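>> received
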Amino acid sequence: MSDNKTSTITALRVSPYGRISDTDKKRAPGINHQFRTVHPLIASRGGVATCDYFDNGKSAYKPEVIRDDGFEPWLQDFIDNQTDVIAGWDLDRIFRQPIDLERVIKAYCHAYFKEGRPKSILWLPSMTLDLTDADARPSRACWSQSPTSQVQRP
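>> returned
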């Protein structure tokens, strides 16, 4: 016996993001390698990949560099409710500087708490982070993994 009610299950819209700077040629994997790792991750978690966002040749530490090819459009698409989740190869590929993480956390929290959108998650091969977590565990986890956290303090 079947009833006429239908349930709609909507897969999370996941935006793969990758970045490589001109100085990363020997240290970091190329954009294609990053996406070949991230796309199966998205599929394995039941998400649907949207368009790939990437910044090629964008330095992590030069403040004058604006990531208007990938990061900024991704963030705006998230704010505009065109995507639900960001997925990346590693934290340092997504968040160049602490301000990048802060901007994403602010956008995620606004979407979840103010707009009532699904809880936004950051998917990486090495971890999954809930960026709306109120006790700041994601921030600590991010910076404990970040190359900038290795700076020795006096």
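>> The CA atoms of residues 53 and 71 lie 7 Å apart.
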